Amino acid sequence: MRIVTGVIFSIIALLCLFMGGLPILGFLLVVIFLGSVEYVKILRTKGFHPSLSLILLTDLAFAILIFFRRFDLLPSIISLAIMASFLMVLFMGRQPYIVNVATTVLGFLYCGWLPCHLLLIRQISADRINAFQIGTNEGLWLVIFVFLIVVATDIGGYYFGSKFGKHKLSPVISPKKTVEGALGATIMALIVASFGVFYTKLTLLHALVAGLLITISSQLGDLSESLVKRDAGVKDSSNILPGHGGILDRTDGYLFALPVAYYYFVNFACGHNIIIEFFKYIQGAINVYFG
Questions:
Q1: pLDDT, tens digit, for every residue of 76-113?
Q2: Which of 141, 57, 55 is nearest to 101 (CA)?
Q3: What is the DSSP string of 195-254?
Q4: Residues near 48 by Cβ (< 8 Å), separated by ≥ 6?
Q5: Where are the domains of the chain?
Q6: What is the three-class DSSP state of 46?
Q7: Mean pLDDT, to the nearest integer, of 224-245?
């Protein structure tokens, strides 16, 4: 059943990804909705009460604004959502107040903002980044690049961990994960990443560096979700996906991998170096200040 569920989920995701537009937006919104519901349900087992309605509303705003490329409005939405978190807790009147505010903010960032980087990567094209001389489908292949590395990470971690695993990676948070499994996952991911030069415009160096960052962030994403579940005393985020658990269980690695991949692509791999730009900004500020 686990294999069947995984195949069906992957086919739906790939179809939506290749079609782009409204299908990928719809798929993302479903994932965000289910993930947010699972997140709130987990925290309620701890006696916390984040606002599900505010989380969902903010997540919807993130996805819609990014889909229509209204990036200028994102800071406003984040600011308003943070202020609204305090107001919602104030009117709900449920303790612990500070924790409820914090978990609400964490909810719309973790369940909404992070997965929305799928849209940001999907939109990467020559019309957005002039230095990246590519066609409008480059974003599609970059998303596939990320997906394949995360899958390779999962497979490598499982195989090497089960076959050679002896040293626990994080005994308290995730007892089944081993150092050998993490190293095997990284090796597998780098091998898969090296093939990215054949279907993306990434150089071998950028493909390997991106692959390393993606596999590390994917493993950290997995551990982070395990930390939340362990603290709440639950095994799976839900049972909506037979054999896999919940949406968060299936996407935890992607939640960290997608943002890391996106910022690496646009700041380093696409001909624009954020570090150089930062020093140029400092130099310009010094010139203005000292005349």
A1: 999 999 999 999 988 888 888 999 999 999 999 999 99
A2: 55
A3: GGGGTSS--HHHHHHHHHHHHHHHHHHHHHHHHHHHHHT-SSS-SSBTTTB-HHHHHHHH
A4: 96, 99, 100, 103
A5: 2-285
A6: coil
A7: 84
